[in-house]
Amino acid sequence: MPIVSISLTEEILKEIDNLQKSMGFSGRSDAIRAGIRSFVAEEKQNQNLSGSINAILLVIHNDEYDDQVNGIKHSFEDLITTHMHSKIEGEKCMELFMLKGDADSVSSITRDFQKNRRMDTVKLVTL
Asked: Does any domain span residue 36?
C-alpha cells in the first residue's frame, strides 16, 4: 500500500483521535481512510448531477472570513435563491444557501468553497 504524508493542524488531529476512539477505528490511518472514502463517494455523486437542480449548500467558517464568503457569493448571485447567515458559537458562522440552477454552476460554487482552506465545513445536499 502506498504511503502519503500529510500535514494536519493540532485541532484536526485531536478531532481525528476523538473519531478514532468513538467510532472504533484501529488507528488514525483507518479513520483518515474512511473520511477519504466518504469524500470520494460524495464527489462522485456530485459529478453525476445534470440539468437544472435545487440544492442546499452549508458552509461553516470563522467570522473573520466573511469577506471571502461574500466574494464567492457575489460570483453566484443568479444561482442563490435564499441566503441565511447565522452565528453558531463563539466566532463560528454558518451560511446556508438555497440554490436553483444549472448543475455545473452548483458544482462550481461548491468547489469554490471547498478549495478555500478557511472554510471549516462545506456540505452540498441536492434535492
From this structure: yes
